[in-house]
Design goal:
The protein folds into two domains: 77 residues, no CATH class; 317 residues, Rhopdopsin 7-helix transmembrane proteins (Up-down Bundle). By secondary structure, it is mainly alpha-helical. It has a two-stranded antiparallel sheet with strand order 1-2. It is built from 17 helices and two strands. The chain is elongated. 69% of the residues lie in helices and 1% in strands. The protein starts with a helix and ends with a helix. Belongs to the SAT4 family. InterPro entries: Rhodopsin_dom_fungi, SAT4-like. This is Cfem domain-containing protein.
Length: 443
């Protein structure tokens, strides 16, 4: 009983202290904007109590009016005040008028549903190749480079989501805003690097999967820990080869088809893959990557301009920034073209293998390709949706970056995670298949 009385007394005391606290003070530059919204009915005082006008505090009762008044206040303040003074003013008005608090934190945290499977697939792919491969291929080294970048991308993105993104910028402390925007800047670079490496790994995986195999040659992908003494034991190699079958006996017709595959079809396929890798993936990514790094001069402007104490006019004179919106369009458009090219490039060769040269190619090959194609279509859809949100969002003019960037964070995280799953899918499928065969053999 005494504890309840003590709690109620403490609560009442806290309410009294809060009621007696002086109202927040406003920067002098904010008065013309607030007075204009109040219709001129504003007392000449430096405290936020003067803002109690029906026109301004209508935001506390009508969500649509809230967004309209917030936009009007911020646009006016950016012409009169510094970014730091603008945030201070909006915080005072939001507190006084009890503006509704919006949050999309749950949507950002929901990304774990796809990010965790992506991490598991990446781990299985790395384990399979490290534990079983006789030697590493180019796609293996590319995936090894993806692993630390992807983990860092997830950690930095979730940090920004927890501390700032998904809520309105005036609800976030100034120091946290700068840290969150710096994390967003780092994640932009990681996004470009990871997608480029994943796309290259898929292209080089194509070359490894479809590489011609000599009729009697031993597979290069035999487990390197397997000794000659257990050569008769069942193999646990997770071979991924989709190339023409090399099972004897070799007939003249099969030998001719194999020669034609090696010298004509695979040669053309390899040339197409290398052109896509060099012209469509590497070159645009390098250009966009460096333009994104140096999008502003000085670079720190990218994350300090939202809380700078310098007037906006001074910032415009002292800093130079590229058209980030146009740069985002270019990067997203190239990404869509790359995804389409990667999706389509193996299908002519698969058609030749299946219907012209080697009708006996197992259906599992087609099923694996179909699964990769389906997930690749999903990656393409996420790229298009992300581009849709970029069209409706201008990062150079937004006054609410922690809220307006939420959709970009969600769809970027989704695109990267699904791309990693697509790159790891063949190895995971082969690993699960080998485990199933071994388990069935022991029964």
């Amino acid at each position: 009983m005494n504890s309840i009385r003590l709690f109620l007394l403490s609560l009442a005391l806290a309410l009294v202290v809060k009621a007696q606290q002086p109202p927040p003070r406003l920067p002098a530059c904010a008065f013309p904007c607030i007075e204009a919204l109040a219709g001129g009915r504003m007392a000449t005082t430096s405290t936020a109590r003067a803002l109690v006008a029906p026109d301004v505090c209508l935001a506390s009762r009508d969500p649509s009016a809230s967004l309209q008044i917030q936009t009007q206040i911020q646009n006016c303040l950016l012409q009169q005040c510094s970014p730091a003074e603008s945030l201070e003013t909006v915080r005072a008005v939001a507190d006084l008028c009890s503006w509704p608090v919006r949050s999309r934190k749950a949507s950002l945290l929901a990304l774990f549903a796809i990010q965790i499977p992506a991490v598991l697939c990446l781990g299985l792919r790395l384990y399979d190749r490290i534990a079983r491969a006789a030697r590493y291929a180019v796609d293996d080294y590319l995936i090894m480079a993806v692993a630390p970048l992807f983990v860092t991308f997830l950690a930095v993105g979730q940090y920004g989501s927890v501390v700032a993104f998904g809520v309105d910028v005036w609800t976030v402390p100034d120091g946290t805003i700068a840290a969150a925007m710096q994390a967003f800047y780092v994640d932009e670079m990681l996004y470009l690097a990871i997608l480029a490496l994943v796309r290259l790994s898929i292209l080089f995986l194509y070359l490894r999967l479809f590489a011609p195999q000599p009729p009697a040659a031993a597979s290069l992908r035999e487990p390197h820990r397997r000794s000659t003494s257990d050569a008769s034991a069942p193999s646990t190699s997770t071979s991924l080869s989709m190339s023409p079958p090399s099972t004897p006996p070799e007939t003249p017709t099969t030998a001719s088809a194999r020669q034609r595959y090696r010298t004509v079809y695979y040669y053309r396929f390899r040339a197409a893959v290398l052109v896509i890798a060099a012209i469509l993936v590497v070159l645009p990514t390098v250009v966009v990557f460096f333009l994104d790094i140096f999008q502003c001069h000085p670079v720190r402007t990218v994350w300090t301009r939202w809380t700078s104490a310098s007037p906006v006019s001074s910032l415009v004179e002292e800093t130079t920034c590229l058209d980030v919106r146009a740069l985002a369009y270019v990067a997203a458009s190239f990404g869509i073209v790359q995804d389409v090219a990667i999706l389509l490039v193996p299908w002519p060769l698969l058609f030749v293998l299946r219907h012209s040269l080697f009708p006996s190619v197992r259906s599992v090959t087609a099923l694996t390709a179909l699964a990769m194609f389906s997930l690749g279509i999903f990656v393409l859809i996420t790229s298009c949706v992300r581009l849709h949100f970029l069209v409706h969002f201008n990062p150079t003019t937004t006054t609410n970056p922690t809220w307006d960037n939420t959709d970009s964070l969600i769809w970027s995280g989704l695109e990267v995670s699904v791309s990693v799953i697509v790159a790891c899918l063949p190895a995971v499928r082969a690993m699960v298949q080998a485990a199933y065969r071994n388990r069935r053999g022991t029964l």
